[in-house]
């Protein structure tokens, strides 16, 4: 049985940015809170992932490689819209590796850092570019960013309207 234990934070600044990252396209076949089924293209790798309901920062997770052609067809023909498009960077810091996701499309402007833990009680050293923790805010779950993309959030629209 797989278990994902993960904390999620907003990112501030660009001090984390290094390298090219890997382009991800992902979609959801099922976005129910008790179970999500995700299809993802990670660069040239296809992946099917099944996740259970979050309990704090933990949840069941099962991940399986699938042919890229199958992943692409599932994304185009069966997944909910909009698809999640992001570039993932793996950023080492203080003996850990953080995954920083820079979102595009309807989630443009959102940058989130995640760190996977061995246990929910594990302490971590936060890099200077890590901002507010959003582990308990379901708006930041990728499956919810399909239903309510970042660009539609009132606080984000307000910022864009002020800049225009």
From TrEMBL:
> Record's Pfam families?
CYTH
Q: Return the SMART domains for the record.
A: CYTH (SM01118)
Give the CYTH domain ranges: 2-147
**SUPFAM superfamilies in the record:** CYTH-like phosphatases
Q: Which domain of life is it from?
A: Bacteria
In this protein, the active site sits at 28
| InterPro entries the record matches | CYTH-like_dom_sf, CYTH_domain, NeuTTM/CthTTM-like
Q: What is this protein called?
A: CYTH domain-containing protein
Organism, scientific name = Haloferula luteola
């Amino acid at each position: 049985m797989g278990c994902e234990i993960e904390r999620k934070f907003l990112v501030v600044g660009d001090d984390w940015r290094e390298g090219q990252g890997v382009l991800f396209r992902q979609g959801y076949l099922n976005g129910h809170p008790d179970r999500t089924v995700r299809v993802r293209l990670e660069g040239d790798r296809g992946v099917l992932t099944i996740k259970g309901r979050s309990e704090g920062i933990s949840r069941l997770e099962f991940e399986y490689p699938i042919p890229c052609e199958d992943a692409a067809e599932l994304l185009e023909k069966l997944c909910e819209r909009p698809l999640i498009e992001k570039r993932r960077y793996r950023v080492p810091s203080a003996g850990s590796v953080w995954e920083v996701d820079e979102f595009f499309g309807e989630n443009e402007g959102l940058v989130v850092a995640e760190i996977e833990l061995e246990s929910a009680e594990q302490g971590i050293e936060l890099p200077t570019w890590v901002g507010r923790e959003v582990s308990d805010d379901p708006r930041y779950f990728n499956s919810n960013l399909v239903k309510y993309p970042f660009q539609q959030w009132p606080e984000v629209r307000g910022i864009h309207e002020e800049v225009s």
